[in-house]
UniProtKB/TrEMBL annotation:
Pathway(s) where this gene product acts: Organic acid metabolism; propanoate degradation; Carbohydrate metabolism; tricarboxylic acid cycle; isocitrate from oxaloacetate: step 1/2
Similarity remark: Belongs to the citrate synthase family.
A GO cellular component annotation in the UniProt record: cytosol
Enzyme active site: H260, D311
Pfam families: Citrate_synt (PF00285)
Transferase keyword on record: yes
Species: Pelagibacter ubique (strain HTCC1062)
Keyword Nucleus: no
Gene Ontology annotations of biological process type: carbohydrate metabolic process; tricarboxylic acid cycle
The protein's name in its UniProt record: Citrate synthase
InterPro entries registered for this protein in UniProt: 2-MeCitrate/Citrate_synth_II (IPR011278), Citrate_synth-like_lrg_a-sub (IPR016142), Citrate_synth-like_sm_a-sub (IPR016143), Citrate_synthase (IPR002020), Citrate_synthase_AS (IPR019810), Citrate_synthase_bac-typ (IPR024176), Citrate_synthase_sf (IPR036969)
Catalysed reaction, written as an equation: propanoyl-CoA + oxaloacetate + H2O = (2S,3S)-2-methylcitrate + CoA + H(+); oxaloacetate + acetyl-CoA + H2O = citrate + CoA + H(+)
Length: 374
């Protein structure tokens, strides 16, 4: 392959962004100039969502207004609810999320307006409604009654309420909120680039987010948090972990939750999420997965010099919180809607059609032979 080809766009800078800065050399990530771990310590997810969408942190009045907007948009149409009821119960919830956002696009009263203001309003609607749709499916597939959202609950609190019918301890909700903050934005990752590519033909926000969800589903991207849990369940006990990881490395298997295209000496979000994983494990009085986590991590760093990415601690944390494994990546979705939407708006504001080239290596020019002579 020619050296001019950058497969996977490895190392290629394709545009500018003001939304986030990933600094692998100092293991740091900032959203609009604020360090992600600082935002986790001082803000809730709604404040960070506002920051990502509106470029500045909100004051009290702006935050109140933003929460009011979200709460106004949180319920689903009768049409979307009836579609959710008809979806096969064994469908992957990522496909349900994709379908739900697509239906929201059919129903949105501003679907043809891609002005910055209309796009912001639509982003808020998608952000508000997607957790409601996912929680409804969570209940429906278990044959349980859908639980309506409550106006007085936070974004994170409401998701627990709608899935489980109760809100857990404050520390658990905080850990969930932190995971949403850490998942909210990460520059030109594959799903965000997908959203920007779709937007670059001047297509609409619902289409771009639908495409981004499909991209996030893959196990090399967001789907990894689900795969991490499958791996930990396979390992089962800390006593099995060393043997398991040694065999996986011998077989040259890809170990889920490890490695990153940009960070080569550790994902800056991991230490924060690892700390909240620990707190959740203490509350749940279950350290099994923490022990497995540590053994696999130690071997991966020692033997391969490959570090965990953020999906490694989120997987077992969501498991301890009680979520079904196939709901981990949809949780990533409800947070990343903020980053995707900001990138869609940024792409619209300074658009250039994304259309790279390919080096052709197929058949030489040949003549078409009529069907009856082939
Ligand atoms: C996310 O981009 C983002 O920002 C994404 C994300 C976000 O917030 O949006 O951070 C979220 O998607 C995190 C990544 C989740 N994926 C996984 O955990 C899946 C497992 N990891 C990988 O397959 C891999 O590390 C990638 C896909 C994440 C990165 O792939 P690259 O950059 O294309 O690197 P590569 O696969 O070519 O690996 C380079 C080398 C290879 O060895 P050699 O052939 O050079 O000898 O490192 C090895 C790989 O085999 N390697 C691994 C490994 N990751 C890399 N070996 C075993 N297990 C792994 N996980």
């Amino acid at each position: 392959m020619s050296d001019d080809i950058k497969k996977g766009l490895l190392g290629i800078v394709v545009d500018e962004t003001e939304i986030s800065k990933v600094m692998p050399e100092i293991n740091s990530l900032t959203y609009r100039g604020y360090a992600a771990q600082d935002l986790c310590a001082r803000c809730d997810f709604e404040e960070v969502a506002y920051l990502i969408l509106n470029k500045e942190l909100p004051n009290k009045k702006q935050l109140k207004e933003f929460k009011k907007e979200l709460s106004k948009e949180i319920t689903l149409s009768k049409n979307l609810l009836s579609i959710l009821k008809k979806i096969p119960k064994n469908s992957h919830p990522m496909d349900v999320a994709r379908t739900a956002v697509s239906v929201m696009g059919l129903e949105d009263k501003e679907t043809k307006d891609s002005s910055p203001k209309a796009n912001l309003r639509k982003a808020i609607r998608i952000l508000a409604k997607t957790p409601t749709a996912l929680a409804a499916f969570y209940r429906l597939r278990k044959g349980k009654k859908i639980i309506a959202p409550k106006k007085n609950l936070t974004f994170s609190g409401n998701f627990f309420h709608m899935c489980f019918g109760k809100v857990p301890e404050k520390e658990i909700v905080k850990a969930f909120d932190v995971s949403l903050i850490l998942y909210a934005e990460h520059s030109f990752n594959v799903s965000t680039f997908t959203a920007r590519t779709i937007t670059s033909s001047l297509s609409d926000i619902h289409g771009a987010i639908t495409g981004a969800i499909a991209s996030l589903k893959g196990p090399l991207h967001g789907g990894a948090n689900e795969e991490v849990m499958h791996m930990m369940k396979k390992i089962k006990k800390p006593e099995n972990a060393l043997k398991w990881i040694t065999k996986a490395l011998k077989n040259k298997d890809v170990v889920m939750g490890f490695g990153h295209r940009v960070y080569k000496s550790g994902d800056s979000r991991v230490p924060t999420m690892r700390e909240y994983f620990k707190r959740v494990a203490i509350i749940k009085k279950d350290k099994t997965f923490e022990k497995i986590y540590d053994i696999v991590e130690k071997v991966m760093i020692k033997e391969k010099n490959i570090y965990p990415n953020v999906d490694y601690p989120t997987g077992p944390t969501y498991h301890l919180m009680g979520f079904d494994t196939d709901f981990f990546t949809p949780i990533f979705v409800i947070s990343r809607i903020t980053g995707w939407s900001a990138h869609i708006m940024e792409q619209h504001a300074a658009n250039k059609l994304i259309r790279p080239l390919a080096s052709y290596k197929g058949s030489k020019h040949r003549k078409v032979i009529q069907l009856n002579q082939r």
